[in-house]
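Usage example:
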Amino acid sequence: MPEGCAPVEANATPKIAIRAVSRRFRRADGQTVDALADISLDIPAGEFVCLVGASGCGKSTLLQIIAGLLAASAGTVRVAGSIVAGPGPERGMVFQKDSVFPWFRVIDNVEYGLRCRGMKRAEREALARHYLERVGLAHVARAWPRELSGGMLKRVAVATVFANGADVLMLDEPFGALDYVTRHQLHDVLLDLWEESGAQTGRRTILFVTHDVDEALTLADRIIVFRTGRLVDDFRVAAPRPRTTDSLLLPELVAHKHRLLGHLGLERLPPPRPGMANA
Amino acid sequence: MSAARRMAGERWVALGVLLALAVLWQVLSVLYPVEAQPGEPMVPGWQVLATRTLLSMADYWRGGFGVTPVSEGGQRSYLAAMLSLVDNSIDTLVRLYIGWTLGAVAGLLLGLAVSWSAWTRRLVDPGAQFLRTLPLLAMVPLFQLWFGSYFIGKIAFVGYGVGVLWFAGTINAVGNVAQIHIDNARTLGAGKLHLYRTVVLPAILPELRSTLFVSLAAAWGAELGAEYLGAQSGLGYIIVFAQQFAYLDRMFLVALLLIVYTSLGFAAFDRLTAWMTRWSARAGRELPAAR
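Running the assembly step on the lines above writes:
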C-alpha cells in the first residue's frame, strides 16, 4: 500500500486488496494509453469509498477491473481473499448508463440476480418488494422500465444490487445524469440502504465513482483521488453522519473540498502527500 | 383526436382504398376487353371470377368426401371447387409454415452459436456464410433432384431460404445487444445459458421482427417457386397449370387468395411480435413530426 493511504485497522483483512494494477489500452492509431498505472490499495469491509477524478483518469477502469468485467494488464485484485477472475454476484455494480433490462418488469429486474441464484419465487418476490419499498418504488413494481423516469430507473438499479446481497457494491457515476433534487434523494436512499444492511449483516463495502466533489464529501468515509491513471490522494472524511448541505460548510469538509478542487485543477494544487504521485 | 378514433378512421380509409381498387379492376375489365385466347379475358371482371373461375377450381379436386374429381368423370360443382381450394391451400400453407418454422429455428440457433464461443463460431460461421451466398431460386432444381416432388423437399427448400435470412439477422441482432445489459447480467450472477435466455434473446427480438417479416415473404416466394417447378398440388401448382392454358382468371383468383393468406399471416405475426415486444416503445408508423 502506498505511503499516505488511509491506515487499515490492525489485524483487519482488507475486503478489497489491489496490488500493482495497471491497465493499458491500445488506441486505433496504434498508440498505447495507460488508463491505470501501478495502483495498490486496500479497502476494509464496510467502508464507503469515493473515487474522485476528472473524466478519463482511470477510476471507472479500476471499478471494471474489480467487477471482473475488464482484465488488468498487470497486477492482481483480491476480494475477500479471492483473486478476481471474472464477474460475480458478490460484487454488484450500478452503471453510469441505464442498465435496467427493459424487457422485464420492474420487480422482475430486482429479482434477476436472485433468480440466477435459484431462490424460490415467493422468497425472491418478498425480498424484491422489500427493496422496492425501501427505494420508494413499490407502487410501480409491475411497470415496464420505459414507463419510469431516469431517477426511478436508478432506484431500480440500486434496489437490484442491494437485493442481490453483494458484499461489495460498485457505483460508477450512477447519479451523474440526474437533476440536483433527484440526486440528493438518491444519496439518501443509498445511505439508508447501506446503513440498513449494516444493522443486519455488517455494512457492505461501497466504491462510488464520481467527479462531483460535494457528492463525494456527502457520501464518503474515505476519498481516493485519481489523475491520469495514478492515485494522487487518499484521505478520510471524519465528519459525522448524516451529512446535509449545511455539513458541507464544516471547516473540515471545506478544507477537503479545496483539496479536491485543487486535484481537479480548479484551484491551486495542494502540496503532494508523501508517497503520492502528483502529476 | 383520440388514438382509438384515429385507428378506426384509418381502418375505414384502408377499406375504402380496397373497395376503390376493386372498382378500378372492374372498370379496367370493361375498358380492356382483350382476350388471351377465345373466352379468356386478359382482365377478368368480378362476375367472371365469382362464377366461372371459381367453378373451374373443381378441376383441381383430387377426390374424397364423396365428391368425384372432374378427372374421373365428376361434374364441376361449387362444393368440389371449395374443397379443392381448401385442399390445395392446406398443402401450400402446411409446407410453408413447417418449412418456415424449421428454417427460423435453425437459423436462429446457428446465428446464436456464432456468438456463443470462439469454437462454435469456427464450426458454424464458415459453412453458414458459404450457404448464405447461394441464390435461393437457383437451388430449386437441386432440391428437386435431391428430394423429387416429395413433401420433405419443399419443406427443406423453404427452410433453407428462411434459415439463411434468420442466420444473418440473428448475427446482426446479437451484435447490437447493448454491452451494458450483458455486463449487468454477469455482475448479477447470470451464467452463459441464463444470459442468452434472459438477455440476448429478449434483446434481439425487436430487431428480429424485420427478419421475421422478410423471411415470411421469402418463404412464400420459395414455397411457390418450389410448387411451380415440381408439385402435384398447392396454389403454386394451380398457377403453373393455369399459365400453360392461358387461364388468366384462375391465376388471378389464386393470386387473390395468396393476398388473403399473406395478409392474415402477416397480421397474425404482427400482433404476436407486438405482444412479445410490448416492453419496448414501438416505433410509430408515422414520422414524429407528422403526429
